[in-house]
Amino acid sequence: MPHALRKILHIDMDAFYASVEQRDDPALRGKPVVVAWRGARSVVCAASYEARVFGVRSAMPAVRAERLCPQAIFVPPDFVRYKAVSRQVRAIFARHTDLIEPLSLDEAYLDVTHATSGLPSATAVAEAIRAQIREETRLTASAGVAPNKFLAKIASDWRKPDGLFVIRPHQVEAFLAPLAVGKLPGVGKVMEGKLAAMGVATVADLRRLGRAELEQRFGRWGRRLHELSLGIDEHPVQPHRPTLQVSAEDTFETDLTLDQLEPHIRRLAEKAWAGHQREEGRVARTVVLKLKTTDFRTFTRSFSPPTLPESARQLGDLACALRARVRHPDGTRYRLVGVGLAGFVDRDHFAAQRDLFDTVAPRG
């Protein structure tokens, strides 16, 4: 049975990092700003709308951004400032609902079905939040209002920047029909290609195939595609999503061999351990080493030790030891390394499992 009708917002700050930089430095206003370190291995963290006109986008190599927009002003990221502004914005959200699911520093889902601010509609809540963000942070945000999460996310992008778009329940199927199937969550380039080979370009095309044919071709994912084509998404806003992994990684200016990675692994272990320490009452069972080769192949090695590491140094020891499980030709070089902790469980649950094992384990 479907859930009772929800009222969901997706709030997305406009060019967030770049906008913070332009707000704090008047000389940057109206200029093409790229938030990134310069260098061959750097990627764009954010681009102002003035830079986007030239095709600059987030996650693009910084050298390509510089080629596209030679007049761009490069500003190194300042995540301490961005996090402070993000906390301000989330405090504004909390005036209207307790059901907030942050996706990153600059975007979140809000369930305002029963808004605590007493405003008469989800649209009114979205308007109030955008006005409060503008007044208190001197930044702009775009908002999407819809009956579920995936539609709200599509809607927030509809009138960017500084826009508001509402998809009402009776408008859902008509709104979706002409959209490219790539707009649906989970439909990447590969799936888009498979669907194109079946004559499917739009959501309306997908809908016409019907559930039975989609299930026959794609199994459970086919059923999900059919539901999305009709605007059905029962995933609730999750205010307290448990951490699955904490990690830190770095891309090098110069590719390194496996033997040269140890100081970098230990430095990243310090960062990952600091993140782990913030998880009150939870512990991670698995150490993860991530590597990316010069030719951009990415792989991981992991290990769940019988005794959990008790310090960043021990984590570094375990992560370094995982290099012995890397089977690459001698001389292989790596452009990125990452260290992580995964498999989080409640500390009490882990202790109970360990006590049980100790009780039943055979003794020699």
TrEMBL record:
SUPFAM superfamilies: DNA/RNA polymerases (SSF56672), Lesion bypass DNA polymerase (Y-family), little finger domain (SSF100879). The active site is at E107. PROSITE patterns: UMUC. Binds 2 magnesium ions per subunit. Its main location: cytoplasm. Residues 8-188 form the UmuC domain. GO terms for molecular function: DNA-directed DNA polymerase activity. Mg(2+) binds at D12, D106. Its cofactor is Mg(2+). Keywords: Cytoplasm, DNA damage, DNA repair, DNA replication, DNA-binding, DNA-directed DNA polymerase, Magnesium, Metal-binding, Mutator protein, Nucleotidyltransferase, Transferase. It is found in: Cytoplasm. Its EC number is 2.7.7.7. The record marks Y17 as: Substrate discrimination. It comes from the Bacteria. Pfam families: IMS, IMS_C, IMS_HHH_1. It is an enzyme of class 2 (transferase). Poorly processive, error-prone DNA polymerase involved in untargeted mutagenesis. Copies undamaged DNA at stalled replication forks, which arise in vivo from mismatched or misaligned primer ends. These misaligned primers can be extended by PolIV. Exhibits no 3'-5' exonuclease (proofreading) activity. May be involved in translesional synthesis, in conjunction with the beta clamp from PolIII. Monomer. Belongs to the DNA polymerase type-Y family. This is DNA polymerase IV.
